[in-house]
Amino acid sequence: MKIISEHKDLLLNRRRLVFEIEHLKQATPKKEEVKKLIIEKLKIPENLINIKFIKSNFGNGTSRVNVYAYDDEKTFNDIEVFRKKPKVKKDAKKAQTKK
Question: Fewer beta carbons within 10 Å, N or C terminal of the chain?
């Protein structure tokens, strides 16, 4: 794993990092696996890292990972918004399709 680029956002108190991860003849690594590697590399707490996306390069066995590493937890909580869709129960879903 190597750092491709690093940019410091002074206004948002974070760093934008782009990593390249090699995974020859394997599936694209999961976010949890990548997060562990980033924590080891940057030596910062897990709650200050947000992985934006992992994009695989077809046929190369490499992936690019865009990461935001924040300076403090308050800034992280103010900027990052995680939206979870409410789970729809199967019975309610079937009732809606019958109408």
Answer: C
